[in-house]
Amino acid sequence: MKIQIYGSGCDKCKQLAANVDAAAKKLGLEFELEKVTDINAITDAGIMMTPALGINGKVLCTGKLLSPDEAEKYRLFRKLSG
Fold it and tell me: Which residues are catalytic?
């Protein structure tokens, strides 16, 4: 599974990456974490607010800093771990 964190690399983007990484590891998922910082790639993905979370190219959450618990409970994580 490929997890994408979309954003400029600000503190919220870095924290979202850390939180999602922790949640995926807790669930025992095999994943690659990709940080997408190119503004053209972000807008091409239809993202208007960052940070944003994508899994396998599908944008799931925009403009929100998910906690590790929120990320763990996120519907696609649950489906993949399950």
Answer: 10, 13
